[in-house]
Every structure is written in structure tokens, then in C-alpha cells.
Model the fold of this input.
Amino acid sequence: MELQRNTDHVFRLMYHFVWIPKYRHKVFSPPYRTVMKDIIEQIGYDYNIEIVELEIPIDHIHMVVRSEPKVSPSEIMQIIK
Done:
């Protein structure tokens, strides 16, 4: 992984999120999986959040994202949700 640079600092921040639906219901079946993946990637593009890895099994979502230090992890998850 390469370092990212801004005018004031050099950084490499990566966050691993696991997003689980209520009661771990199996809601991400195959037709919805691709739509959900496209939506999450579009949101990442719109808000300048790099989605390094995205995996959607049938009952949860794994994401590894990179962002700037001025955006907190809770803000990233709030934007994506």
C-alpha cells in the first residue's frame, strides 16, 4: 500500500467495517448483492472514499475503505448507510 499525501501530511488510513443486518437475517441474496455493491461503490466515488475491498456474503457486508484523516470512521459509515 502506498502512502497518500495532502498539503500538510502523509497518511495511510484503512478501516475494516463489518455491517450486519438486524438478527443477521439472510437478506443479501444474489439479485440484491450486485445492486448493493454498485450502490456502495457509487457512494464511495461521490464522497471520495476509496473502497479497497467489498465482499457481500448472504448475511453481512465486509468493507475495507481508505479515506482522509479529516473524515472519522463513524462519518464514513454514516455516509455509506
Notes: The mean pLDDT is 91. The chain is about 30% helix and 25% strand. The beta strands are 4-5, 10-11, 14-19, 50-55, 61-66. Helices lie at 30-46, 73-80.
